[in-house]
Amino acid sequence: MSRLDEKFVKEYFGKRGTVSKWWDPEGKSAYTVYDRHYFKREKEDIVKILQPLNGKHILEVGTGKGRIAIELAKCSAEVTAIDISKEMLEIASERAREQGVENRTTFEEGDAESLRYSNNVFDAVVCVQTLMHIPNQLKCLKELTRVTKLKGIILIDHINKEHLWRVQVRGKKNFIRAILVDIYLSDLSLPIRYLIHKTLKKPINPSTVSRTTRTDFCNLVQESGLKIEHTVDYGPKYCPIYFLIVAKKELI
Asked: How far is it, in rounded angstroms, from Cα 217 to Cα 223?
């Protein structure tokens, strides 16, 4: 990801009225009923994987509107959740109050590439539907590793680079649209996005949404100093939509 893209991805996600308008993975804004199903299933899997949660201090990076942080807090975990968007954090805080877990959730503004926390603080770290938007993914993974306690669990996911799943899940029409969107969000079209962004003076998304293969993703996670326990796939078996990696911090 270029320096220009690094600048604008953070500017976009930090600005009001941008990602908050479309990111509601279990709501009506999700692409299809299949997407909502997989997002919901991933949340349920995360809660199961991290059990027992009572007394655990968990960090969620890229909390969005707080759906996972709140679910973990409902299971008696103490959750610190960060996001680059103040607007999303306000929404998350309000939802936590509405659902009675405001005393077990702390929402703070933060950058995934430069966490403000000390080493070995959290029992577990969750970073889902976030890494694909991070400019320096290895730096982010190393930060997640740094703040996690020894033997602590880290959960991270990423979008599958292959596009075959789009045909089955979204149909031919949406498949073609998705390919065009991929081209628009690629590094090659960055100058065009930059020009549109500045000309229209609107907070359109100028960032690159990266995708990866399972092998490359696993290699990146291991490079950050984590031991992979197992992976969970979401989507068609022959070509998952995205992967969730369950990793553990070990002595290097």
From this structure: 10
What is residue 189's predicted lDDT score, i.e. its pLDDT?
A: 72
Separation of first and last alpha carbons in the chain: 28
The confidence score (pLDDT) of residue 208 equals 57
Of 148, 125, 154, 142, residue with least CA distance to 247: 154
CB-CB contact of 203 with 230 (8 Å): no
pTM of the model: 0.86
Tell me what pLDDT residue 206 has.
Answer: 52
- Using CA atoms, how far residue 4 sits from 10, 11, 87, 156, in Å, is 10, 11, 24, 25
Taking Cα atoms as reference points, which of 109, 115, 112, 76 lies closest to residue 93?
109
What is the Cα–Cα distance from 50 to 229, expressed in whole angstroms? 13
- Backbone dihedral angles phi then psi of residue 106, each to the nearest 5 degrees: -125, 120
* CATH code, 3-163+210-249: 3.40.50.150
Domain boundaries, the chain: 3-163+210-249
Q: Which of 166, 128, 99 is nearest to 246 (CA)?
A: 128
CB 165 within 8 A of CB 38: no
DSSP state of 160: B
Q: Which amino acid is at 191?
A: P
Give every residue of the chain whose pLDDT is below 50, as ranges.
4
Q: How many CA atoms within 13 Å lie on the side-chain side of 100? A: 3
Task: Tell which residue, 206, 143, 220, 214, has the closest CA to residue 2.
Answer: 206
Q: Rg of the chain over CA atoms, in angstroms?
A: 18
- Whose tokens are 């409902």? That residue is 74
Burial class of residue 28 (count of CB atoms within 10 Å of its CB; 0-12, 13-18, 19+): exposed
pLDDT of residue 17: 84
